[in-house]
């Protein structure tokens, strides 16, 4: 009897324990880290971006002389499951080694942030010009290690509710040489980071900028987002000054006239935001041509009176050093650069874009693979179809 009673009591206790455990597991699942459950839209977007990918090595001469496109592959995508604090997204791009810089940006900004992170993979051909048509084992190891680093970084950001809500894409591109990897696809990455923006209001800000706390506070205030969206109907670009506004108050609202080589950071709406021209790779002119396009598309520039950016200085990249040296040879010594010199290519591209704007026929070059995604992923907002006005030549002098 005692044994029987003991078994009955034990069985009842076990049932209660199982029920309690089930409740605890259910509660734990409700507060599980956001990264535990992949976002189905993010997975759909990743598949669509990679659908037309074909392995190839990017070659310097082919890119510079023949305008062949970059060939990035989207290795992974992680979206924040934390609700956006407000409906305004900053988007940016960076190399893998600058993840700490992205964390600094994320710490200075409390809203949605879309980032495209990049790794260059060098996989040379052999002496006979032959090579595998896939990632080598060594290259695959580098990509997987980088992907793990990006995933760990995203988990770290997700765990801190006080900072940004981060959506992050991780791309790599295969190059045939160390020289070729200098062709960093900066405007491809900006365009892809912009593609995953999930708000109407957005701003491209380079990753080495801190954002003033006043910007996040303003965007969180009631009525701010609709006010900025109304400015879009007038094609006003709200400029975020670097460092700080020179004068506070109403003077911050006066118009700024476009001038050659002007390259501010600005706030606008998705449906009137031009694409970044993917012909500009490596270093130089990549933001400048976008701002020239804003002028071509009849934007006016207005200074934000109370928000700004602070630059976080960093050492020059290798490609910037190359372009600076080539520019010095031309401007100081009147050197004639070889046809495959990057600075020469950049000046040709700028001249081509300038002539297109003067004629009223300019259209920024985009990645056909990216544009094809819009035909597959139906929930993406359609890309803008903007019409510009002929620009006087005097603007560019």
From TrEMBL:
Molecular function terms, GO-annotated: glucuronosyltransferase activity; xylosyltransferase activity
Organism from which the protein derives:
Chlamydomonas reinhardtii (Chlamydomonas smithii)
Question: In the UniProt record, does the keyword Transcription occur?
Answer: no
Query: Which GO biological process annotations does it have?
Result: protein O-linked glycosylation via mannose
Q: How does it sit in the membrane?
A: Single-pass type II membrane protein
Give the main localization category. Answer: membrane
Q: Which residues form the signal peptide?
A: 1-36
What's this protein's name? Uncharacterized protein
Q: What are the entry keywords?
A: Glycoprotein, Membrane, Signal, Signal-anchor, Transmembrane, Transmembrane helix
Q: Which domain of life is it from?
A: Eukaryota
Q: Can you cite an annotated GO cellular component?
A: membrane
Q: Where in the cell is it found?
A: Membrane
């Amino acid at each position: 009897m005692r044994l029987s009673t003991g078994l009955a009591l034990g069985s009842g206790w076990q049932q209660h324990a199982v029920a309690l455990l089930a409740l605890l597991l259910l509660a734990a699942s409700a507060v599980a880290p956001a990264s535990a459950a992949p976002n189905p839209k993010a997975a759909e977007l990743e598949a669509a971006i990679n659908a037309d990918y074909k392995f190839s090595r990017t070659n310097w001469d082919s890119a510079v002389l023949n305008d062949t496109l970059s060939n990035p592959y989207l290795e992974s995508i992680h979206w924040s499951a934390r609700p956006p604090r407000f409906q305004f997204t900053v988007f940016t791009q960076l190399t893998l080694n600058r993840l700490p810089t992205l964390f600094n940006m994320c710490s200075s900004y409390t809203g949605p942030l879309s980032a495209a992170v990049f790794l260059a993979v060098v996989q040379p051909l052999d002496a006979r010009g032959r090579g595998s048509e896939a990632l080598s084992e060594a290259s695959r190891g580098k990509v997987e290690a980088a992907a793990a680093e990006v995933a760990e970084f995203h988990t770290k950001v997700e765990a801190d509710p006080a900072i940004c809500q981060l959506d992050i894409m991780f791309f790599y591109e295969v190059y045939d040489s160390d020289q070729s990897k200098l062709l960093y696809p900066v405007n491809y990455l900006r365009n892809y980071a912009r593609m995953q923006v999930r708000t109407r209001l957005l701003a491209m800000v380079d990753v080495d900028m801190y954002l003033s706390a006043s910007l996040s506070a303003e965007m969180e205030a009631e009525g701010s987002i609709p006010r900025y969206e109304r400015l879009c109907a007038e094609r006003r670009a709200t400029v975020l000054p670097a460092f700080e506004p020179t004068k506070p108050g109403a003077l911050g609202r006066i118009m700024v006239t476009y001038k050659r080589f002007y390259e501010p950071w600005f706030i606008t709406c998705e449906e009137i935001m031009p694409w970044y021209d993917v012909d500009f790779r490596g270093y130089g002119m990549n933001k400048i041509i976008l701002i020239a396009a804003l002028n071509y598309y009849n934007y006016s520039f207005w200074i934000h009176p109370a928000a700004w950016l602070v630059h976080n200085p960093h050492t020059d990249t290798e490609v910037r050093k190359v372009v600076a040296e080539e520019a010095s040879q031309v401007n100081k010594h009147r050197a004639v650069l070889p046809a495959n010199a990057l600075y020469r290519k950049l000046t040709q591209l700028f001249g081509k874009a300038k002539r297109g704007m003067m004629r009223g026929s300019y259209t920024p070059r985009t990645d056909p693979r990216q544009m094809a995604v819009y035909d597959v992923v139906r929930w993406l907002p359609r890309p803008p179809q903007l019409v510009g006005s002929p620009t006087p030549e005097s603007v560019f002098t």
